[in-house]
Amino acid sequence: IELYLPRLRLAEVKLFLYSCNHIPVPSPSTTPASISVTVQELAASVGLSRDMSMKALRVLEREKLIICDRLRGRIANRYRISWGTFRAP
What is the torsion angle, in degrees rounded to the nearest 10, for the CA atoms of residue 39, residue 9, residue 81 and residue 61? Predict the structure, then answer.
């Protein structure tokens, strides 16, 4: 499997590796998996500030490596993070 990764800074690499360790990679027969996490939990897990984590999430989402949706309602401070579409160079 060939995978294109753009030039990522350390913060984005940390969050991408966090995603690799916590979100199962879907197979063709399964629906894409996701995790529900607050930015504070995510930041604490990888040793980043909340602001740096938010910036890194935006970069990973812009590069289509992850999909990050803010949940609504009572758990509005949580995000659902799932795999994006890996793209070819």
Answer: 120
Give the residue among 9, 81, 67 at the shortest CA–CA distance from 38: 81
pLDDT tens digits, one per residue of 32-79: 788 999 989 999 999 999 999 999 999 999 988 899 888 776 666 788
- pTM value? 0.78
Which CA distances in Å does 10 have to 16, 42, 46? 10, 15, 11
Q: Tell me if 53 sits within 8 A of 46, measured CB to CB.
A: yes
Q: Which of 86, 62, 77, 82 is nearest to 12 (CA)?
A: 62
